Amino acid sequence: MEKRVLFKSSWLPWLLIAPQMAIIVVFFFWPAGQALYQSVLQEDAFGTSREFVGMANFERLFSDDSYLASFQTTAVFSLLVAISSMSLALLLAVMANRVVRLAGFYKTLLIWPYAVAPVVAGVLWVMLFASPYGVISFALQSIGLPWDHLLNANHAMALIVMAAAWKQISYNFLFFLAGLQSIPHSLIEAATIDGASPWRRFWTIVFPLLSPTTFFLLVMNVIYAFFDTFGTVDAATHGGPGKETAILVYKVYYDGFKALDMGGSAAQSVVLMGIVIALTVVQFRFVEKKVQY
């Protein structure tokens, strides 16, 4: 039978959730409301005067070719970050789950990168690829593959993808490892007795049972790529060369704090928020149907 907790007073449940609700209101609803309000205004750089312009900021955005190009840049970037970070994390989790000796030590080493700030991750990877003295850049040049992320757009995109994915691998690793450890060993042993190869056991038993974890990480990685990678992009490429790596969240910052277009920046943040909400709804509405709980 289902056990339910009954409170003697009607106000106690509200009191218990009050701290969390306060955090949500202050750090989510209030900034979102401010963005919605500012998106329909035209303000000067110092905020001394403002004028209601309605949807003019949004109309100007969608007539700007550079802003439309940032949609494609963000889509490519988020897709590459999500796929690469989740794939490598799953591989590392499978390998770490088989380690017997010093397992805790290896798992701790794999978790450490998650403690690194996005800006630090960006600077770290820039140093590795700094031409001509970066370790990886020097190795590439020695085999005839010159690297220059300051001028080559493909190199710049590869750099921020590697930095952002490396930062997120530890987060994905934690959940994949927990998912692997929750799978009953009896299922794996039964498949082994039946003669299933390790590859077949993984795709027919292990991976389907990891589908709830994979779905959760897919949602979180998309949100991460859209929002939490600003520091990495800013430290690594500053949206360059040109605007080839100016993803949506970086363009919000650049137009607001560099170009001092407060209304346009607020409109961009509203659009970005809408995109993330829409993607999350689509994932839960359609992708979750294929998840096996």
From TrEMBL:
Residues 71-283 form the ABC transmembrane type-1 domain. SUPFAM superfamilies: MetI-like. InterPro entries: MetI-like (IPR000515), MetI-like_sf (IPR035906), UgpAE/MalFG_permease (IPR050809). The keyword Transport applies. Belongs to the binding-protein-dependent transport system permease family. It is a multi-pass membrane protein. It comes from Paenacidovorax monticola. Keywords: Cell inner membrane, Cell membrane, Membrane, Transmembrane, Transmembrane helix, Transport. It is found in: Cell inner membrane; Cell membrane. One of its GO terms (biological process) is transmembrane transport. It comes from the Bacteria. Pfam families: BPD_transp_1. The chain crosses the membrane at residues 12-30, 75-97, 109-136, 156-180, 201-227, 266-287. This is sn-glycerol-3-phosphate transport system permease protein UgpA. One of its GO terms (cellular component) is plasma membrane. PANTHER family: BLL4140 PROTEIN, SN-GLYCEROL-3-PHOSPHATE TRANSPORT SYSTEM PERMEASE PROTEIN UGPA. The complex is composed of two ATP-binding proteins (UgpC), two transmembrane proteins (UgpA and UgpE) and a solute-binding protein (UgpB).
